[in-house]
C-alpha cells in the first residue's frame, strides 16, 4: 500500500505501471524509492513473452526484467540468473546475460550463425562468453552477455511505443533463446496471443547452449520473474564516466557529478524512469523436464501447499499478465495482499522487494495452457545442484558490488 499511495505502482485495463520517485531531492546516503516486483512461483523452464510500451531510461537508471533462483540453502548464483532485458543510462541497446557459478562456457556460440546479436566485450578478451560471475578476463560479475538490436532500449525505444520480447528457456532442447521486435512488427502468433511457435521466428538475437559438457541444465533452476528499477550500482557506476552523463550533469548544474550525486539531486529527471507493461504471458511445454530437473512450475515457491488449477490462477499474480483484470472480469483491487517496503539490496539480484497479488482472467489462464499443459506440484523444489556453489567470501564480495542507490519498495 505504501507503493500504491506513493504512485509508484498501479494497474489499469491493458497496462501496468512500475515506477520510481521523481519528486524528492535526497540527502547523502539516501536511496531513491523505486519498485521491485517478483513472481511468487518459480520456474524450471518456460516461454516468457512481454509486450513493453515504455522502459526506464536516462542517466543513473539501471532497470532489468530477469529471472533468478535463490533460497537460504542455495545462495546466488547456484540456481542461476537470466537477464532478459538489462540496460543502463542512455544506452539504446539492451543486453541479455546469464550469470552462473563455475563451468558454464559459451565460446562455441558464433555471432551471425547461432544468433543475430553481438557479444559484449570482456575486460581482456573480445567476447564475454564465460557465464561464471567471476570468470577470468571479464569484468567483475559480467557473466556471458550478448547485445540486443539497436533501438531495443532507451529514449528511441519509448518514442516508438516500445516493443515485444520473447525469452525461451528450454531445457528439453538445451538452449536459452531471446527475440526482440519493435512495436508493430511482432510475428502473428505473438501479436495475436495465439499459440506461439518459436521455430517460425527466425534467428534469435541471443542464444546460449545448455548441455552437460559446456553448461549443465542444473545451472538454472527454480527461477522467479523480476521487474525492477535500480539506480547507479555496479553497472551504473562502472559505466558512468563514458556514458555522456557527467557532461549532462555539468550542462544542467554547472559541475560534473557522480552517479549518486546526480540521482540524489535531480528528482524531476526521473519522470521517465518507469516500466509500462501491456502484457506478460508465460507458456509451458507438456510433459516432464529432463532429469534431474523438477517441475516446470514450482507453485507458491518456498511456502509449500497444494493448489488446484483455479487456485493456482489466483495465486499466480506475480506475472503481470494480459489485461490484469480481476477474475470475473471486473476491475477489482488488482494488487491484493501486502505490499512490503524493503530497503534496496540488489544482492546479486537477490533480496525480495515488492509483493503483490494479481488475479488473472480465464482468458489469461487459457493462454498459459495453450502452449501445452500446465504442471502443478505440491512439494517444495528438490535440491538439484550439480554445479558447485560459491564460497561465502565470493558471494559477499559480489553482493556488495551489486547494491544500487535505490530504496526499493
Briefly say what this structure is.
By secondary structure, the chain is of the alpha+beta class.
Describe the protein's architecture and organization.
The chain is of the alpha+beta class. The protein is built from 9 helices and 18 strands. The protein has helices at 2-5, 154-159, 188-191, 233-239, 245-253, 259-265, 309-315, 362-370, 392-401, and strands spanning 9-12, 15-18, 32-34, 36-38, 42-43, 46-54, 61-68, 81-86, 95-99, 118-119, 144-147, 163-170, 175-182, 206-209, 224-231, 275-283, 297-298, 406-408. Strand 12 (163-170) and strand 13 form a beta hairpin. Mean pLDDT is 79; it is low at 304-403.
Features:
single chain, seven-stranded antiparallel β-sheet, 409 residues, alpha+beta, 9 helices
**Category from helices, strands and their pairing:** alpha+beta
Shape: globular
Average of the residue pLDDT scores: 79
The percent of residues in helical segments reads 10-25%
Q: Assess the beta-strand content as a share of residues.
A: 15-25%
Task: Give the N-terminus to C-terminus distance in angstroms.
Answer: 10 Å
Query: Major β-sheet, in short?
Result: 7 strands, antiparallel
The number of helical runs is 9
Spell the H/E element sequence: HEEEEEEEEEEEHEEHEEHHHEEHHHE
Q: Which blocks of ≥5 consecutive residues have pLDDT under 50? A: 304-403
Question: How big is the Rg?
Answer: 20 Å
Give the neighbour order of strands across the main sheet: 1-2-16-6-12-13-14
Number of strands: 18
Amino acid at each position: 500500500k505504501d507503493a500504491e499511495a506513493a504512485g509508484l505502482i498501479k494497474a489499469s485495463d491493458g497496462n501496468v505501471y512500475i515506477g520510481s520517485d521523481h519528486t524528492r531531492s535526497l540527502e547523502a546516503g539516501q536511496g531513491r524509492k523505486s519498485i521491485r516486483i517478483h513472481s511468487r512461483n518459480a520456474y524450471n523452464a518456460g516461454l516468457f513473452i512481454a509486450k513493453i510500451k515504455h522502459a526506464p531510461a536516462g542517466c543513473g537508471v539501471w532497470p532489468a526484467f530477469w529471472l533468478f533462483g535463490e533460497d537460504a540453502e542455495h545462495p546466488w548464483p547456484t540456481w542461476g540468473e537470466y537477464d532478459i532485458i538489462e540496460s543502463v543510462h542512455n544506452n539504446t541497446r539492451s543486453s541479455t546475460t546469464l550469470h552462473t557459478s563455475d563451468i558454464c562456457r559459451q565460446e562455441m556460440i558464433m555471432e551471425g550463425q547461432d544468433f543475430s546479436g553481438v557479444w559484449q566485450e570482456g575486460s581482456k578478451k573480445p567476447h564475454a562468453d564465460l557465464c561464471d560471475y567471476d570468470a577470468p578476463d571479464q569484468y567483475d560479475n559480467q557473466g556471458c552477455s550478448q547485445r540486443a538490436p539497436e533501438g531495443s532500449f532507451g529514449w528511441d525505444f519509448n518514442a516508438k511505443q516500445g516493443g515485444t520480447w520473447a525469452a525461451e528457456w528450454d531445457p528439453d532442447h538445451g538452449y536459452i533463446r531471446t527475440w526482440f521486435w519493435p512495436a508493430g512488427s511482432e510475428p502473428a502468433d505473438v501479436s495475436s496471443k495465439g499459440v506461439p511457435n518459436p521455430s517460425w521466428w527466425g534467428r534469435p538475437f541471443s542464444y546460449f547452449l545448455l548441455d552437460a559438457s559446456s553448461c549443465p541444465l542444473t545451472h538454472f533452476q527454480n527461477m522467479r520473474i523480476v521487474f525492477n528499477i535500480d539506480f547507479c550500482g555496479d553497472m551504473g557506476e562502472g559505466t558512468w564516466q563514458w556514458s555522456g552523463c557527467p557532461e549532462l550533469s555539468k550542462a544542467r548544474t554547472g559541475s560534473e557529478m557522480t552517479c549518486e550525486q546526480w540521482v540524489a539531486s535531480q528528482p524531476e529527471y526521473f519522470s521517465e524512469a518507469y516500466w509500462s507493461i501491456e502484457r506478460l504471458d508465460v507458456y509451458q511445454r507438456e510433459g516432464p523436464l529432463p532429469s534431474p530437473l523438477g517441475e516446470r512450475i514450482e507453485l507458491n515457491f518456498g511456502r509449500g501447499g497444494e493448489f488446484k488449477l483455479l487456485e493456482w490462477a489466483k495465486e499466480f499474480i506475480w506475472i503481470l499478465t494480459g489485461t490484469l483484470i480481476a477474475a470475473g472480469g471486473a476491475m477489482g483491487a488488482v494488487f491484493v495482499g501486502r505490499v512490503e517496503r524493503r530497503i534496496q539490496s540488489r544482492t546479486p539480484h537477490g533480496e525480495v522487494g515488492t509483493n503483490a497479488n494479481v488475479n488473472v482472467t480465464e482468458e489469461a489462464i487459457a493462454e498459459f495452457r495453450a502452449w501445452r499443459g500446465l504442471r502443478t506440484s505440491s512439494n517444495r523444489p528438490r535440491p538439484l545442484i550439480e554445479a558447485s556453489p560459491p564460497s561465502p567470501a565470493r558471494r559477499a564480495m559480489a553482493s556488495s558490488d551489486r547494491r544500487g542507490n535505490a530504496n526499493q519498495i
